Amino acid sequence: MPSLTAPAPARAAYLVWAAALAVYVVAVTGRTSLGVAGLQAAERFDISATTLSLFSVVQLAVYAAAQVPVGVLLDRIGSRTVLAAGALLLAAGQVMLAVVDTLPLALAARVLVGAGDATAFVSVLRLVPAWFPARRVPLLNQVTGLVGATGQILSAVPFMALLLAAGWTTAFTSLAALGVLLGTLAAVVVRDRPARERDSVQPVGTGPEVPPAAVAVPPRTRVPMRAVLREPGTWLGFFTHFVGLFPANTFTLLWGVPFLTAGQGLTPVAASTLLTVAALSGIVVGPVTGELTARHPLRRSWLVAGAVAATILGWASVLAASTPRPVWQLALLVVLLTVSATASNVGFDFARTFVPPARLGTATGLVNVGGFVASLISIYLVGLVLDLVRPDGDYVLDDFRLALSTQALVWAVGLTGFVLARRATRRRMAARGVVVPPVRDVVARILAERRDRS
Ligand SMILES: N[C@@H](Cc1c[nH]cn1)C(=O)NCC(=O)O
């Protein structure tokens, strides 16, 4: 059996990760490209704003539906092939969108984009534990999400400039060319695992609170799908991603800018500045969350619960008021949305530490479904209420207050699942001999140790 501790060569590990990450950045650029080209799309396909939002919904639905099949493929054929094939699929969708001028064909193109996009993030997450020591994985997962988000800047700035200067066909064909280029690079550079295999010895129960309980699990052991579905840790990951991701997606993918402009009276420039603040705050929030996750693996669920509670309070304070809120309060809200989105990545850490490595891709895909299903439901509910209360689309603040309050339903479902899955996970851990001491006991012990020392 290969050594459990031999590190993979760091340069090679970073090279593999960077090549895969580049594909993820282009996937996010493709995902968000239609958002910035909304006006041109409405003109080209002769459609209303509501029909335009159908593009986002179709793409997100395909993305979510593809997660488990992609995860299964990752476990069977590895990140390199899935990543390269996904990049080509994404490029095919962008080329198609570049040339078609009817709505059904444009929607079909977006299906391809959604399917290609679905492969990128989970492929990168599958590579990280194979190439890096367990201690670094939570941080690198956060940095992966963070760097991926810069794809949104690429679509907002250079892609938009190309669209305005050279037109629709050139802009989308260029995006496709970039996808082919980086997909090819990934096929050449990425290796699914180092030559000296890391056996992903990353069980929960390690960290300062409990001594390491390393368990060697040969990576290619066959693990049935039902073992993944019966593992409560998988569902803890699913509901973590569910409750953490949807507030940020609801805001950034569709309803944030209309709420800030039509509801709160900000200019479009001020609204996009706030979205930039949200993205930039991730530079601090992501690594801090990653580091805390790595240092306190037995307290990860508290991190998630705290982030969700803060986000609920942030939204409640904004929506309770019937007058526009000061900019500082809106800025605080968008930062909290980033805190929640970064906490959602802890869901992937639950998958990594509770599911055998041979099924890590499947479990990662399943966890990712949680966030995107919740996002779809939330985006739909907000749109539904807005349509009911203001069919003419001339929204005012009160319409948004009511519509955005529907997020409470999604939180209620997500938090119920989270609490139940957490309980089941703790029971399973106790059965395996890892008993998590209550926080008050840990605090009492630390205080007693301090007293003894002084
Ligand atoms: N949780 C997000 C990534 C993220 C966003 N902000 C911080 N991290 C996620 O799961 N993304 C999936 C994807 O395909 O982008």
From TrEMBL:
Sequence ranges assigned to domain Major facilitator superfamily (MFS) profile in this UniProt record: 15-426
GO molecular function: transmembrane transporter activity
Topology of the protein relative to the lipid bilayer: Multi-pass membrane protein
Main subcellular location: membrane
Keyword Transmembrane helix recorded: yes
Keywords (A to Z) from UniProt: Lysosome, Membrane, Transmembrane, Transmembrane helix, Transport
The keyword Ligase appears for this protein: no
Localization annotation: Cell membrane; Lysosome membrane
Lineage: superkingdom: Bacteria
Self-association and partners: Homodimer. Interacts with lysosomal protein GLMP (via lumenal domain); the interaction starts while both proteins are still in the endoplasmic reticulum and is required for stabilization of MFSD1 in lysosomes but has no direct effect on its targeting to lysosomes or transporter activity.
Cross-referenced PANTHER family: MAJOR FACILITATOR SUPERFAMILY DOMAIN-CONTAINING PROTEIN 1
Family: Belongs to the major facilitator superfamily.
Known function: Lysosomal dipeptide uniporter that selectively exports lysine, arginine or histidine-containing dipeptides with a net positive charge from the lysosome lumen into the cytosol. Could play a role in a specific type of protein O-glycosylation indirectly regulating macrophages migration and tissue invasion. Also essential for liver homeostasis.
Protein name as catalogued: Lysosomal dipeptide transporter MFSD1
Organism of derivation: Georgenia muralis
Lineage: Bacteria, Bacillati, Actinomycetota, Actinomycetes, Micrococcales
